[in-house]
Design a protein that fits this description.
544 residues, alpha+beta, four-stranded antiparallel β-sheet, globular
Length: 544
Amino acid sequence: MVERTPHRMRRFLVPGVLGLMAALALAGCGGGEVRGTSMPGPPTGNQATFVYLQNVDVVTDWDPATSYSNELVAMQNIYESLTVYNPLTRRAGPRLAERWQSSPDGKTWTFTLRPGMRFHTGRPVDAAAVKASIERTRKLGQGAAYIWDAVRGITAKDTLTVEFRLKYPAPIDLVASADYAAYIYDTQAAGSGDLGKWFQRGRDAGSGPYTVASWQKGKEKELVLRAFGSYWGGWEGPHYQNVEFRVTPDLNTSWQLLLRGEASFVQRLTPELFQKARGTAGVRTLQVPSFQNLLVLFNTASGPLADVRLRKAVQKAIDYDGILTALKGAGTGATGLVPGGLLGHVTAAGAQPHQDLAGAAELLTQAGYGPGGKPLRLTMTYAQGDDDEQVLATLLTNALAGLNVQVDARAMQWNAQWDRGKASDPARRQDIFVMYWWPDYADAYSWFRNVFHSATPVSFNLTYLENRDIDSRIDALPSLLATDRGAAEKAYAYLQSALIGKEAAVAVPWVSNYQRAYLGNVQGFTDNPAYPNVVFVHDLIPSG
């Protein structure tokens, strides 16, 4: 999951759930709301093709074992996992596996596959293929492969039965629903050739409803998928036969393409355009809470913010309420690291932060800075082209300027920002790193394991925190989740208090609300917060 750009999610609906989920989408799933109708409006375009617009490149990595970036929106239509997260039950549901069970101690999990499934290559999706997929992903050890850390061994018991033996209890049913590193694929697709190189040419070896028709890196119409005729989910009734992913950096252009019926779905609009879409005939809108939040990460290891008093001062200087007002519904106040809907979410009164400039000034003064003291200079990096992060940068820079703190806030392309954050020379790193985060599967573990656990070399742990007590508590989380959810809840609460309060390693200004706009003739769409920005196109119903 490399490009943590704003707004990315996905979902999958199992047979029998589609009607219910479509109704929830039209009523407003998970506290969201849908406006607009399927009344005649803009031209409907080609009903056989679903056109998805996003403002950044779609594919950075074609290998399902290592993919960890924006290609999620396409990969979840090409590849499948054993299970899928169901936001209604908040548990894993069937996908390639139709049922599963665990031993009483949570250390042995057995999955039974659906019969008769095939990869796009023609080979069967069987227990041996599941074993080979996950073992290759684990061996490569990239992206989100850490999700399988608990696995000691995998056995294909028979053609349709797969057994996982674990080193310690872990929720493998949830792990198997992850948005990355849980894909099942044909490891024999390249024959005797290099499978990694075979994938990077824009080829796929999935089992999902769509397969790659064309890929043109860097082009506006970057990726086209076509229906896989032998898909186990079937093609009875109306379905989109093709999916186009188009890159449209300018959101005004995206809006015009939607109005002309040349696009089916726009991943993101500005708050102003979203309000306009809500009142436009023939356009549907959907606003729903997400599992994605913005993290303001402080350099705890080097530079001025190695002083915890200064980190706490910057926390207090953030205009949390002003930012939410500026976001105009695209974000809600955070009450910790863990968004609502996930185990570990903090709901205690007073948990949502507010700006405290007097408190910030006092802490700065204690450290020898602030009004009347020596000037403090900080560097901050954030995503270029992200209007919401720009709001944060502007308000924080202005607030700190009044406290004799100068912030050099730099908007950067993601790869450049991330490379600077990972620099081996601490002098090259920033003081404040701004990025989005969301879970790799529907559990809060991803925030703690990836962002706050010490690691060498640096990856996403961009606070550079090294705390053995926090590390050990993070390491215990998967086992607690599988065996004692009450204890897991307490562990998450403690870690959030330690990281935000005692260590002041991070501030969390908001949790994102997804604001979607799509044509009124697209039926059955809803967001699943466990799969950022993904539209599961096979589940949609095109209407004329």
